[in-house]
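Why do we bother with holo predictions? Because pocket geometry can differ from the apo form. Keep that in mind while you read this record for calcium ion.
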Amino acid sequence: MFDGVEEKDAVAEKKRQYILSRLKDIHEKADLDDERVLVFCQPVYNIHEECFDTAEALMRLKLEETGMVFPDQFIPLAEEHDYIHTMSRIILHKTCVQIRNLLDAGFNVKRISVNFSISELHDENFCKEVEEIIGKTGIPYEKVAIELTETQDESDFLMVKSRIESLQSHGIKLYLDDFGTWYSNFLRIMELPFDIIKFDRSLVIAAMNSIKSETIVSYLAHMFSDMNYSVLYEGIETEEDEKKCIRMCARYLQGYKYSKPIPIEQLTEYFGKSA
Ligand code: C2E
Ligand code: CA
Ligand code: CA
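The structure, written out:
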């Protein structure tokens, strides 16, 4: 039995080392069109407009020896070895190129959001680089949003605030990701001019399971809406989830009920065209 376990560990470790070597190679080549880095997208439903007009970009790797690799197997590695920013640059570039294609083909694309890790913001050139990548494709800055999670590190607060303000002064939108997964410091969040607050799936599940939780989640969503933030619920899987979140002040809905993440080119199946 122990042999079996050890063998499994050895196979997992070999795969980890292989993925790490490919991440290193992607980082060193720094090619924004690297074909190993794929953009998948999950369309987001806009309740007011009754259509899909935004989406979230989600990274995948396609490697020779392993085929498709999902974020849980490479994002922590890329963060740990400081390769994550190279990966984010590639995703941002490819997303902007595709937004350009969708707009040129007449699709109504309000925006697509891209995930960044808080550690990336420490670089003082962060905002300039992001603006350059978007600017090169000629799309309006407001077509791109950046998703950030809450930082637990109080010393990062002023830095994060100034980065957000700088990006927003160019028209780039900002989302707070995974709200509800950490102990949240509301007063701090309210000092940051996010456009959209993404309520994590754990809040949707909690609201489905107890009236008390539903009251709290609903209250929070109303509070954010009153403060001019839009509320997006993540992880909508069923019609019951959908109905409940609409009652809890949702502006946007995202989850498997509408679509799993799909290759970015397939967004044409969800986005509409102007008449
Ligand atoms: P996230 O940003 O919170 O992304 C949402 C995750 O939830 C995605 O997993 C998505 O496939 C999954 N999801 C969507 N709808 C549902 C649903 O109805 N039910 C459930 N249970 N899950 C749903 P994915 O694509 O595996 O990404 C996992 C995480 O990896 C992301 O969580 C994000 O933290 C990270 N990630 C993905 N792409 C990037 C990226 O380009 N850069 C960075 N820094 N992180 C990324
Ligand atoms: Ca996200
Ligand atoms: Ca999330």
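The pocket of calcium ion (ligand 3) is lined by residues 177-178, 198, 200, 234 (CB under 6 Å).
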